[in-house]
């Protein structure tokens, strides 16, 4: 797990896991949330994150020590490098104990919950203490994984991406539960095959046609089409459909 911080930015509470195939208790879809200070709540109207006493007054000493231990563990390179192997081996010996330990340390620190419903207590806790949450569903695949492989055909992989779309759509709907301005962070990576996204970036850079020019999905497709085979074109069309669906949902919500 990696945590990126900006020296000039106030510290934020970050909750993160990824969607992993399988039925193990600790390998479930989860919701990532980052948070920002909300000045609309009277009790924390003048909350200053450069004042440690005020910034962390909602946390107990035990909670702060646990967070420190989690961050320290994340700086141990051999532990991070071999995390998957260590978890697999330890779970083969005592899965319930390991699952409980991970859930109450790393998972609790970085994740808001295992599904949209389970994050509600976290949302309420953050709002009570002047923190406006940003819903962010964390579902990404390893770029080295093939899209559609033996035992996982392309159709099944596309259905998985459609499920990610459904969760993003629910996050947009559930943003009504957030007081003041509602935020939902949406990533492109859970909506398309990693290899396709990588190739798209390479093509846009090589052709001098960066994606930050405000392309519509139709113009983006037109720019990429000459460089994609039939399978990649079909995947691109599905990804753009998902992106357009999300954009339409956000526009409909803001115009309502």
TrEMBL record:
This is Proline dehydrogenase. It catalyses: L-proline + a quinone = (S)-1-pyrroline-5-carboxylate + a quinol + H(+). Its EC number is 1.5.5.2. It comes from the Eukaryota. Keywords: FAD, Flavoprotein, Oxidoreductase, Proline metabolism. Transmembrane segments: none annotated. GO terms for biological process: L-proline catabolic process to L-glutamate. Belongs to the proline oxidase family. Converts proline to delta-1-pyrroline-5-carboxylate. One of its GO terms (cellular component) is mitochondrion. Its cofactor is FAD. GO terms for molecular function: FAD binding; proline dehydrogenase activity.
